[in-house]
């Protein structure tokens, strides 16, 4: 009888328990419920589909074009505001004021822990600038001194995939038959030893809205090669699988970069000099007045994105302190393309017997040493580092005094954030380390001339003294003549390569003693031993142990004496 | 010496006892997993077990409290000095010698003086400590009280979690001693049988 009761009552209990969390799910689901399901067919799917124009039909683009500037003049003949719009964006200026810190950021102003600095290397670096400069390798034309027809429309809009801006030409495509410089073949876009001037009309006629390949042409190759810089951006995202990126999946949603980095007047949203680490009230929805943009996950997914499971409220509670990326990008560099993790300029400068910079690759083809740059290590499927982050990064400007931390490492972009400022969440980062030259007397990171065809360029001479002197001079900074090497660190917030839900970081990888969030302060993380009260644990375990010993001892005496009594009776 | 049988535990009490026992074991096992004491079991599985069992035990306690007050059975837990020395002496000494238990349970006085104290301690200290700290943890982590400034972020939750941990250790001690003392009836299985059938055997 009691057993039947137990079963019946137990069933009721189970139902009541099931009812409780699902009722919660209803209260926490935001207005976005159901939005995701209706996306197919609403959002621009892939390049070209949302323009009613075929540029092949325009006689203005029939060509032939002698110079790329002539193409731009044809473009702005109709798109009258386009060049002026582009010239206001950071894609052109490489410089802007960070509203959070008031400091100047952009490539022109800050250091990085890859090739370190743009200044004095512009004719090389501007092969990723949305403009045309002077094809003389030694003559850099400042961006602000360039006419409207020097805006490069093709790099973002042409769809042949054959358009390549050539190193040392200030951002121009090959103007004549040219030999490929050793170590740079990736940027010339050829396997041959030379390049010829391309048919510019072919590019002009192919234009449409930018594709992933357009953006990736520069952003996948940042830091000097495919996947080198970001860790979450490389050529595997040109045609990614569902497992690599659920949004860009070519067989699924097939987002372009601009589906999230929405553009108006040629200005793109997003960017990592400063970002909104805890965006709220920015729902991106038709008819919803907003100042936000869909570049943040929450714009579309809301604050309570998990639905329909009994543990959805449990997952949703995590959004208060975790960025979506923290669980949903379990590793970066997941597309088989490795990313550079460390770089050691201190070992650079070795040349092979034939006089070219020494190159050492490992069996997989990863470049472990290059005379121009030094030693490298690479990572694939890298587990990110996790930090509290409020979106503000304090960037080191050229000329800033070095202030290395207790570990002797200077940060070129120290990230701000704390568990208590109300603006931070725990974000995943790629941390890129270098060991780069600095002025030991002035205590400033060295601006140095790494790339050029002159003898001061480190790539040509392997001479730090000359390269630093030239770089500091170009930057207008004093150089004492004494240099050393400073360990540096750079933070890259990870936000691309969003994995399918089933591949999200499992609970147990953080809720454990030595997991992904080991050492992240400001949380009580169940399962993380460092959050326990040591004396309470000791006392508790001792009490349990003593009670076990007590009852076993008591039982032992009872049995012993009972046996003796029984023996006595016999 | 005669063996006397008394009907001590009514149907609800037996159901309450065994379902609570099962839930407490589930809560302890899953709680230790959540605490990081052992691995293997998926964290989420342990969490779901813990939450469902917590809701279950909460519901059970609501029923049990209601039952105690409507039936007047709460009086079974009122502390008494009656034979307290004799009872203590029995557990510490007399039991080893095979002496009879000084307390003879009747439906009106099921518990001896030490049992009353032990269960009062369980019901007024251990259970409320676990219950209140558990509810605070739910309120804070699930943000059911958005204005709960004490909970944000970490410190308040840590206090509630530490209280919950302390409660769990106390509960473990209780369970160990309770299970052992269940074997100290007139025969080793007498108390357990009583909690199954309701009929307790005792010596007179």
Automatic annotation (TrEMBL), chain B:
Residues 9-198 form the Cytochrome b561 bacterial/Ni-hydrogenase domain. Keywords: Cell membrane, Electron transport, Heme, Iron, Membrane, Metal-binding, Transmembrane, Transmembrane helix, Transport. It is a multi-pass membrane protein. Its main location: membrane. GO terms for cellular component: plasma membrane. It holds the Pfam family Ni_hydr_CYTB. It is found in: Cell membrane. GO terms for biological process: respiratory electron transport chain. One of its GO terms (molecular function) is electron transfer activity. The chain crosses the membrane at residues 21-43, 49-69, 120-145, 157-181. Belongs to the HupC/HyaC/HydC family. This is Cytochrome b561 bacterial/Ni-hydrogenase domain-containing protein. It comes from mine drainage metagenome.
């Amino acid at each position: 009888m009691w057993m039947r009761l137990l079963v019946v009552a137990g069933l009721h209990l189970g139902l009541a328990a099931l009812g409780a969390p699902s009722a919660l799910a209803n209260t926490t689901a935001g207005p976005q419920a159901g939005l995701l399901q209706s996306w197919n067919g609403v959002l621009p799917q892939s390049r070209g589909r949302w323009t009613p124009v075929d540029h092949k039909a325009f006689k203005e683009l029939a060509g032939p074009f002698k110079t790329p500037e002539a193409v731009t003049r044809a473009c702005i003949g109709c798109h009258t505001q386009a060049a002026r719009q582009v010239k206001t964006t950071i894609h052109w200026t490489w410089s802007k004021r960070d509203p959070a810190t008031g400091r100047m950021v952009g490539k022109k102003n800050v250091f990085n822990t890859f090739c370190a600095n743009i200044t004095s290397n512009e004719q090389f670096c501007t092969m990723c600038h949305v403009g045309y400069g002077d094809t003389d390798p030694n003559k850099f034309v400042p961006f602000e001194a360039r006419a409207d027809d020097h805006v490069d429309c093709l790099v973002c809009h042409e769809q042949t995939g054959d358009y390549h801006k050539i190193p040392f030409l200030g951002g121009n495509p090959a103007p004549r038959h040219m030999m490929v410089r050793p170590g740079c073949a990736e940027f010339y876009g050829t396997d041959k030893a030379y390049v010829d001037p391309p048919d510019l009309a072919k590019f002009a006629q192919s234009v449409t809205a930018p594709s992933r390949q357009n953006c990736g042409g520069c952003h996948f190759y940042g830091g000097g090669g495919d996947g080198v810089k970001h860790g979450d951006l490389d050529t595997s995202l040109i045609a990614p699988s569902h497992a690599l990126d659920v949004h860009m999946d070519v067989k699924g949603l097939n987002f372009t970069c601009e589906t999230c980095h929405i553009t108006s007047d040629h200005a793109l949203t997003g960017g990592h000099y400063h970002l909104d680490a805890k965006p709220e009230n920015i729902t991106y929805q038709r008819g919803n007045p907003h100042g936000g943009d869909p570049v943040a996950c929450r714009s579309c997914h809301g604050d309570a994105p998990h639905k329909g499971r009994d543990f959805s409220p449990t997952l949703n509670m995590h959004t208060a302190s975790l960025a979506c990326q923290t669980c949903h990008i379990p590793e970066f560099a997941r597309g088989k393309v490795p990313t550079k993790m460390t770089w050691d300029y201190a070992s650079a400068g070795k040349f092979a017997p034939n006089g070219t910079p020494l190159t050492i690759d490992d069996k997989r083809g990863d470049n472990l040493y290059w005379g121009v740059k030094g030693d490298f290590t690479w990572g694939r499927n890298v587990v990110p580092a996790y930090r509290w982050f409020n979106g503000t990064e304090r960037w080191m400007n050229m000329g800033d005094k070095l202030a290395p931390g207790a570990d002797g490492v200077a940060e070129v972009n120290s990230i701000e954030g704390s568990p208590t400022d109300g603006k931070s969440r725990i974000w995943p980062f790629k941390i890129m380390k270098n060991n780069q030259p600095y002025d030991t007397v002035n205590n400033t990171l060295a601006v140095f001339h790494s790339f050029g065809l002159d003898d001061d360029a480190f790539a040509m001479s392997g001479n730090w003294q000359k390269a630093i002197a030239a770089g500091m001079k170009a930057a207008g900074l004093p150089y004492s003549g004494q240099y050393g090497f400073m360990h540096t660190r750079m933070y890259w917030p990870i936000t691309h390569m969003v994995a399918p839900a089933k591949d999200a970081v499992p609970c147990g990888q953080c809720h454990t003693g030595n997991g992904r969030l080991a050492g992240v302060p400001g949380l009580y993380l169940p399962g993380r031993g460092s959050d326990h009260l040591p004396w309470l644990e000791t006392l508790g375990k001792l009490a349990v142990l003593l009670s076990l010993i007590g009852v076993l001892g008591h039982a032992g005496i009872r049995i012993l004496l009972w046996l003796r009594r029984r023996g006595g009776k016999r | 010496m005669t063996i006397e049988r008394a009907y001590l535990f009514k149907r609800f009490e037996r159901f309450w006892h065994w379902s609570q026992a099962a839930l407490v074991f589930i809560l302890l096992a899953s709680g230790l997993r959540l605490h990081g004491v052992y691995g293997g079991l998926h964290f989420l599985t342990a969490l779901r077990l813990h939450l469902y069992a917590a809701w279950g035990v909460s519901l059970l306690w609501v029923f049990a409290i209601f039952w105690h007050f409507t039936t007047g059975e709460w009086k079974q837990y009122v502390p008494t000095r009656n034979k307290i020395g004799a009872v203590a002496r029995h557990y510490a000494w007399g039991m080893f010698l095979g002496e009879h238990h000084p307390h003879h349970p009747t439906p009106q006085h099921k518990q001896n003086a030490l049992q009353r104290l032990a269960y009062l301690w369980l019901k007024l200290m251990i259970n409320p400590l676990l219950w209140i700290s558990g509810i605070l943890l739910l309120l804070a982590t699930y943000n059911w009280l958005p204005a709960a400034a004490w909970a944000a972020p970490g410190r308040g939750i840590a206090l509630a979690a530490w209280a919950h941990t302390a409660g769990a250790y106390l509960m473990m001690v209780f369970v160990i001693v309770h299970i052992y003392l269940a074997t100290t009836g007139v025969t080793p299985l007498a108390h357990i049988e009583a909690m199954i059938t309701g009929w307790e055997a005792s010596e007179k």
